[in-house]
Specification:
CATH topology: Bit1
Largest sheet: 5 strands, mixed
Helix content: 25-40%
Shape: globular
Structural class: alpha+beta
CATH class: Alpha Beta
CATH superfamily: Bit1
Number of strands: 7
Oligomer: single chain
Length: 140
């Protein structure tokens, strides 16, 4: 076991042949979306226009405070991306699926591009996307 037992896995679709910058942007959207979807109303006394309150679980907090390990992997296609996201949800892991609006690529067609799984314990993510996981992945 590593001294940092938490990670976040970022997946992108290889079949879309996105530019490197587009891949980076889509993975960044996924990474931060996991946290933004946990926003709750600001408590009394905090100006909601200037404060954001996020409820995170202990694994997310530990990850955020200790290195923020991220692994970027690719999947073959949309089906694999959606499957990884669904399996993560079923396992109770934080996850976000990104649909690009299509303004700069994909001919104006909204397209599923990326997914974040975690932050969570490595042993909870690896059965989905790790070596021998149920969703085939490749190192980016």
């Amino acid at each position: 076991m590593t001294d940092r037992p938490y990670k976040q896995v970022l997946l992108y679709r290889r079949d879309l042949n996105m530019r490197k910058g587009k891949i980076a942007a889509q993975c960044a959207h996924a990474s931060i979306s996991v946290f933004l979807q946990r926003e709750v109303p600001a408590p009394a006394g905090l100006d909601p226009a200037r404060a954001m309150v996020l409820l995170v679980d202990p694994a997310m907090l530990a990850w955020a405070r200790h290195g923020q390990a991220k692994i970027v992997l690719s999947v073959d296609d949309e089906a694999a991306l959606v499957r990884a996201h669904a399996l993560a949800r079923e396992a109770g892991l934080p996850t976000a699926l990104i649909r690009d609006a299509g303004h700069t690529e994909f001919g104006g067609v909204p397209t599923l591009t990326a997914c974040a799984i975690g932050p969570a314990r490595i042993e909870d993510i690896d059965p989905i996307t790790g070596p021998g996981g149920v969703v085939a992945t490749k190192l980016a």
